[in-house]
């Protein structure tokens, strides 16, 4: 019910995670169809980049305004910080304040004078401005950092790298908000280099009870997790996509023309393969560099055919090996019999 600076930066991190989720699932997927030349009707979705910009913009963002208040000379209070926000963010559609210049909120009695409200992707959150400036300063005296750095315990020493005499910086230490913003930027950079798989968990009720589903709670989570847009894109799009070369390499044993080697472009090989298997044309599309398969059942069918074919090939290999082994034994016995017979005839 009472949200301060800590909850504000936590929600900022959630906004950034939601942004990268949108980038990698909704935006990137639709752009990939266009890049690959697949016929596609764009599906609209809410992009929360505007909320992230409200918080992290270097000139007009809330964190920038907070840092400016913490670093400027003169009397600085939480109220002066809120006044600055009212001046800079007054017309922003996702920012609300009782003291805002925008008259839409002047009659909003649910919003106290010492608070501001941000309309996050998951809903509106009201923040108590009290304590923002003090918590953002996060001042630690330099001599305390140096004392901690001199500790014999390796963990304590590692927690205070700024205490290293070789790295003494006479500048004012960075604020808590700027440190958190830098950490979030590093996290986003790290996530963008990975190939993430998302698991969205739905909490069915507040009591952790089995077989109890609170419909309003479930619907709320589905909305703010962005699952509706995600399902729309997935249903309209293709469940599976893969470059032609690995696709041909994986399924080439299903067609006599592509097995064991296909001489020619991989795309032509995949086309011959799919025609041989008689897969309906509406189930797949050829992109510039990838094959797109619409329904999972088509992929499951290919995997099942591949599994059967591998079993047949394993049986064939086993049969040839057993035949070779028996023939080798037979030829050895035949040679031995000839030697024994020749010696016996000579003896007789």
UniProtKB/TrEMBL annotation:
Single annotated GO MF? microfilament motor activity
What InterPro entries does the record point to? Kinesin_motor_dom_sf, Myosin_head_motor_dom-like, P-loop_NTPase
Q: Does rRNA processing appear among the keywords?
A: no
One biological process term in Gene Ontology: endocytosis
- SUPFAM superfamilies per the record? P-loop containing nucleoside triphosphate hydrolases
Myosin motor domain ranges (all copies):
1-307
Under Gene3D superfamilies, the record lists: 1.20.5.4820, 1.20.58.530, Kinesin motor domain
GO cellular component terms, semicolon-separated: brush border; cytoplasm; microvillus; myosin complex; plasma membrane
Alphabetical UniProt keywords: Actin-binding, ATP-binding, Calmodulin-binding, Motor protein, Myosin, Nucleotide-binding, Repeat
The record's Pfam families line, in alphabetical order, gives:
Myosin_head
Residues of the region (Actin-binding) are 184-206
Q: Which family does it belong to?
A: Belongs to the TRAFAC class myosin-kinesin ATPase superfamily. Myosin family.
PANTHER family according to UniProt: MYOSIN (PTHR13140), UNCONVENTIONAL MYOSIN-IB (PTHR13140:SF277)
**Listed name of the protein:** MYO1B protein
> Encoded by which gene?
Myo1b
